[in-house]
Amino acid sequence: MFLPSRAAEIGGVKAWRARTLRVPCCPAWEKEPEPTRRSGLTGVAGRCGAVVTQTPVPGSGEDTRRAARATALGARAGGNGFRPLALLPSLHPFYAALFAGLSGCLTRELEDRRGFLFLPVAIATGAALYFGAAHEPLPYVGLVPMAGFLGLAIALRAHPLGFHMFALLAAIAAGFAVASFQVQRIAHPVLAAPLQSVEVAGFVEAAEQRPRGSRITLRVTRLGREGRVAKGATPERVRVTLTTTQPPAIGEHIALRASLAPPPGAAYPGGFDFGRSMWFDGIGATGFGLGRVQPAPAPRPLPLDLRAAAWLDATREAIAGRIRASLSGMEAGVAVALVTGLRDGVPEPVEESMRISGLSHILSISGLHMALVATTVFFVVRALLALFPMAALRFPIKAWAALPAALAASFYLVLSGAEVPTQRAYAMTLIVLAGVMLGRPALTLRTLALAALVVMVLTPWAILDPGAQMSFAATLALVAAYERWGHLVSAPALIGAADTMLGRVLRVPTRYIAALLLTSLAAGLATAPYAAFHFQRLAPLSLLANLAAMPVVSLVVMPAGLVGAVLMPFGWDDVAWHAMGWGIALMVRISDMVASVPGADRGIRAMPMASMVLLSLALVAICLLRTRLLLLAPLCLAAALWLYQTMPRPDVLVDREGRTVAVRGVDGRIAVMGDRDAGLAGRLSAEGERGRAGASDVAAAAACDPLGCTLRDRRGEIVALSRDPNSLEEDCRRASLLVTRHAPPASCAATVIRIDPRSNMEATAAFLIGGEEADQDRAAWQLESAGGRRTRPWEVAGGTNGAPLPRPSPPNSGAVLQTVPNDPTDSPDVAP
């Protein structure tokens, strides 16, 4: 282990003082009589287990570069350098030793030139601070601290700790400023309040078939009659669900009547904010189509980007038609999804099976598919060039092969629809291939840091996207794992028969299986916290499923799909599609076998945001740190688990329309009353239930009649759902908590959650406060809304007066939580 040190004079040149290390017990070193030299950098001599000295090799030229770097890192540590410990002379010896050890670890990390790896982490931290703010910050306010910290970093550029500390703070401020700038750049209106039976016209921008209809995204050209929606408040895009299974073509200008509403918020407090995600996709309203879709004359020519999208959609449909002509059923749907990105034909049982088994990432075109396509083309082209000895010996055929691989990745990006996850994977692939062209290492932590930096600068809201989080977490874990343990994948070390016939025969498959095991284990462990946080489910058998299915995907399914796409213009693609279908059938069979194992689908209750942040910090520490700072990882992990266990669980969950109420009973399980189909899955998923027999059995305890339903909470108090105004008086007298759409009496003693359907109400959670105390006649309730304070760009609904919707405040016991309609003339509901 290397020990940190200060600068010293070595051979008349100022450089870092010689450091010591313990020679590992390597048999190859025991046989060498002379010191081992690596890249002319150091000379190492000694027996196994001995402590030796590492010094720069004279005459290699590296001593001069090392001296220059020593100066840049603050070689004058013994002079008037930046020494924060000197400012604390009265520290207790324990804390002084702690700070000294921390300073030494940081110095060692800086010596290893790993500071750049933390730049995207700092940018992401700044972006997270922006998106997590309770109120919208002032525009570009992040530039002020960024300039101040950057100036301090430049002033302390000769002192490593001070320079890197303030540079890191400047990067955090820069991430805050970049996020603010990008959000202001893409800001667009959001529908203020629900509109029923309003006329909508626009260009079809996206269309997809669904199990019971279709869904389209319209680029709006007209919304409502003249004056119905104020100018400047019309959403730029709306997403409409249709009953027809054949959606209109992309690029077509249509008109229809629809019921629209603002994008829905989180399904429960602390859950995923669907409205925010839609806002970053440019969508300002969602709704349902009423009646038939009619072609309409366009007020302006078709935009150029929609022309390209229409051509691309026609190409994808043509390829999908060729695949369906060769395959049928489930194989055709999965093949079309993998080649073109159109997932409409994938049966729901197949998707659910792959989610349970941990293979759902195969259906979503991302880094795996992009890497398989680029890698296949790269090695095929390189092998073909290697057939010509003159070219192989005289020219850099490896760099040449990277260019066709980049072109293939670009074609696959366009063909698959260029979704956001595919764009991120494409950027990462291009950076890797650019490194190959320049003769640099293909996939390193620096490459990943550069790709993450590009993504965070261009789309800082990617930090909120589950796909982006899981993609970068998996890639970070894979690169770090191969940097540390990649040498263990070598077949001789695994089977111990490198010089035998058996060793030579088993070398390649053993190495492949070992690499697959390391890949699946690293990626699975890295993405599990994010899957638990966003989807409240774990796939404990995903390692087994990936070990069995990934060889089929990597060696059969994706190569056959690539060959089929290449041979399609020549008419010889049928054989490739059949081979791809055989591989898909085998993959789905493996998925079904794993999903059928008892315990394969493990639901967990919702995780707090603080736990997710701590788990992310633990992952970063494990992958990026090399010194004793690694101890931060288990500390973060322990804190995350403690917060998860101590987080209060809601006793009552109410959906945004007031039709469904979930109540935690005496046994701690969730019971549901009301419309069990309205958001039931999201509520039960948030509490770790899978919505199967157990939950439905408990729900039978609800007492319902035409006037409403009642359930008892964990304290035994009544929670009532009132559907009729005639039941309010009795419910107010008997219930501790009342959920209703109607105005309660002024003398109502219960805590009331009133859902006004004419406003943009959010889902609500209720927590019992002091419910276990025997001296209280009635439990107090603390209410928490899933919505924010309506001050962020994706939350503000610009109505006819441009004012944001009023938001409820959490009331105390006996208070009423309700919202005021934005416009009395608006329709009271949006029929699904």
TrEMBL record:
<feature type="transmembrane region" description="Helical">
    <location>
        <begin position="362"/>
        <end position="385"/>
    </location>
</feature>
<protein>
    <submittedName>
        <fullName>Competence protein ComEC</fullName>
    </submittedName>
</protein>
<keyword id="KW-0472">Membrane</keyword>
<feature type="compositionally biased region" description="Polar residues">
    <location>
        <begin position="815"/>
        <end position="825"/>
    </location>
</feature>
<keyword id="KW-1003">Cell membrane</keyword>
<dbReference type="Pfam" id="PF13567">
    <property type="entry name" value="DUF4131"/>
</dbReference>
<feature type="domain" description="ComEC/Rec2-related protein">
    <location>
        <begin position="338"/>
        <end position="628"/>
    </location>
</feature>
<feature type="transmembrane region" description="Helical">
    <location>
        <begin position="163"/>
        <end position="181"/>
    </location>
</feature>
<keyword id="KW-1133">Transmembrane helix</keyword>
<feature type="transmembrane region" description="Helical">
    <location>
        <begin position="543"/>
        <end position="567"/>
    </location>
</feature>
<feature type="domain" description="DUF4131">
    <location>
        <begin position="138"/>
        <end position="289"/>
    </location>
</feature>
<dbReference type="InterPro" id="IPR052159">
    <property type="entry name" value="Competence_DNA_uptake"/>
</dbReference>
<dbReference type="Pfam" id="PF03772">
    <property type="entry name" value="Competence"/>
</dbReference>
<feature type="region of interest" description="Disordered">
    <location>
        <begin position="785"/>
        <end position="832"/>
    </location>
</feature>
<dbReference type="InterPro" id="IPR004477">
    <property type="entry name" value="ComEC_N"/>
</dbReference>
<dbReference type="GO" id="GO:0005886">
    <property type="term" value="C:plasma membrane"/>
</dbReference>
<keyword id="KW-0812">Transmembrane</keyword>
<feature type="transmembrane region" description="Helical">
    <location>
        <begin position="116"/>
        <end position="133"/>
    </location>
</feature>
<feature type="transmembrane region" description="Helical">
    <location>
        <begin position="397"/>
        <end position="415"/>
    </location>
</feature>
<feature type="transmembrane region" description="Helical">
    <location>
        <begin position="512"/>
        <end position="531"/>
    </location>
</feature>
<feature type="transmembrane region" description="Helical">
    <location>
        <begin position="445"/>
        <end position="464"/>
    </location>
</feature>
<dbReference type="InterPro" id="IPR025405">
    <property type="entry name" value="DUF4131"/>
</dbReference>
<feature type="transmembrane region" description="Helical">
    <location>
        <begin position="612"/>
        <end position="644"/>
    </location>
</feature>
